[in-house]
Design goal:
By secondary structure, this protein is of the alpha/beta class. The protein contains 15 helices and 15 strands. The chain has a 7-stranded parallel beta sheet with strand order 3-4-2-5-6-1-7, sandwiched between helices. α2 packs parallel to α3, α3 crosses α4 and α6 packs parallel to α8. The radius of gyration is 22 Å and the shape is globular. Bound molecules: adenosine monophosphate. The site of adenosine monophosphate has 13 residues, from α3.
């Protein structure tokens, strides 16, 4: 299968060739023809599958030929949960649409309102937005959504997890009844099904990974460790395995800041990224990380959502997420096409129940690897027992470097 066979016009195929994509990904092969014939789509696909191009390319084609995004009436609206994802989707629209005369804009919070309003006033065909700022613009009448023909809800599960459902409903009320709708979600929670039922008409169902399955491209492993020794273990892994780059997830903003500071103090080039940081600080940290200037990026779930970081070899769960589906999102950051990814979780005994829930969602048990000197296994019984059929990997004990005294006493 090639991009030529998907029904895309020459300008789009040319833009894709410029990106050196040789073949469409499975989500692209399935979604592009369905969207081009005007169908609504419900797609189960996480970041890294090529989902952005899967909706952007046909969206550009559908809009092209009738370009009249006059004044502040966008004809296509893409709603995303986070600012970073909005910026990335907008970047993709510019990349894939560079040979078409369509105009696009992106609006999200944390940056000035008026420059966005000025851009909208000039006229846009496609608007990418996060829900809160979009509603601000609608309220201030700097955008009019009554001419939207094409709606994409990207990472809809994440939007619901972040409590955006009331905002989404408000946005839907501002749209005309007749339009084409696409809903992309990495996981299928019952709430997503409910939203899909209310939003989509006879949708094409496209699923590129099994329901709620963690990406198979990422090798997953658990290192049991006492909570108080997590940082020491992380440093040990960074040093002994000579990590060049890893995205480390912390549960709280303060935890992310603290960990980044401690790593810096220990001589590891680390930075944190979370919702309390200014947009420019977040963008800078991400750019430095992409360039390799920053070795460890410590992020909260919200800040990291949808980050498109190519060739990320390692994702670390310093804390397990409280929402099990976030585990799937987190490790979706690694193991992308052509790269062997490794997803490491540092799990303390207190997190046994969370681990249990995660393993229920991904429907497999994650192999345990004990790093000698750091072991502190999740309490027996907190390990899932519900699915005895699933194979449990024997713990592997990795030897420490000679000369170091293993300390396997549990701290009280
Ligand atoms: P996404 O899932 O949209 O976040 O895309 C993940 C990454 O895959 C992005 O860096 C895209 O540039 C890249 N990508 C998208 N489509 C293709 C393709 N057909 N071949 C190779 N890479 C692609």
């Amino acid at each position: 299968m090639s991009f030529n066979n998907l029904g895309l016009q020459a300008e789009l195929v040319r833009a894709v060739s410029a990106q050196r994509y040789s073949t469409p990904t499975p989500i692209q092969t399935a979604a592009i023809p369905a969207i081009l014939i005007g169908r609504d789509v419900l797609a189960g696909a996480q970041t890294g599958t090529g989902k952005t191009a899967a909706f952007t390319l046909p969206m550009l084609q559908m809009l092209h030929g009738s370009s009249n995004g006059n004044r502040n009436h966008p004809r296509a609206l893409v709603v995303t949960p986070t600012r970073e994802l909005a910026a990335q989707v907008h970047e993709s629209i510019r990349t894939y649409g560079k040979y078409l005369p369509l105009r696009s804009a992106v609006v999200f919070g944390g940056v000035g309102f008026h420059p966005q309003a000025a851009k909208l006033r000039k006229g846009v065909d496609i608007l990418v937005a996060t829900p809160g700022r979009l509603l601000d613009h609608a309220q201030q009448k700097t955008v009019d959504l009554s001419k939207v023909e094409f709606l994409v809800l990207d990472e809809a599960d994440r939007m619901l997890n972040m409590g955006f459902l009331p905002d989404i409903k408000r946005i839907l009320n501002l749209l005309p009844k007749k339009r084409q709708n696409l809903l992309f979600s990495a996981t299928y929670l019952p709430e997503i099904q409910k939203l899909a039922n209310s939003l989509l008409t006879d949708p094409a169902h496209i699923q590129v990974s099994p329901k709620n399955a963690a990406t198979d491209l990422a090798v997953q492993r658990i290192h049991p460790v006492a909570r108080t020794r997590k940082r020491a273990l992380l440093l040990h892994l960074i040093r002994t395995e000579n990590w060049k780059q890893a995205l480390v997830f912390a549960r709280t903003k303060r935890g992310a800041d603290r960990l980044a500071k401690q790593l810096l103090k220990a001589g590891v080039n680390a930075q944190s990224i979370h919702g309390d940081k200014s947009q420019s600080a977040r963008t800078r940290a991400l750019a430095d990380f992409k360039k390799g200037k920053v070795c460890i990026l410590v992020a909260t779930d919200i800040a990291a959502r949808g980050l498109d970081i190519i060739e990320l070899p390692r994702v670390v769960n310093f804390d397990l997420p409280h929402v099990p589906e976030d585990y799937v999102h987190r490790i979706g950051r690694t193991g992308r096409a052509g790269i062997d990814g490794l997803a490491i979780s540092l799990v303390c005994p207190e997190e046994g129940d969370l681990l249990n829930e995660i393993e229920n969602v991904i429907q497999k048990r994650i192999p345990i690897e004990v790093i000698e000197g750091f072991q502190d296994a999740p309490r027996e019984g907190n390990r899932p027992t519900a699915k005895p059929a699933a194979p449990v990997a024997q713990p592997v004990v990795r030897r420490m470097r000679p000369g170091r005294r293993p300390d396997n006493r549990r701290r009280r």
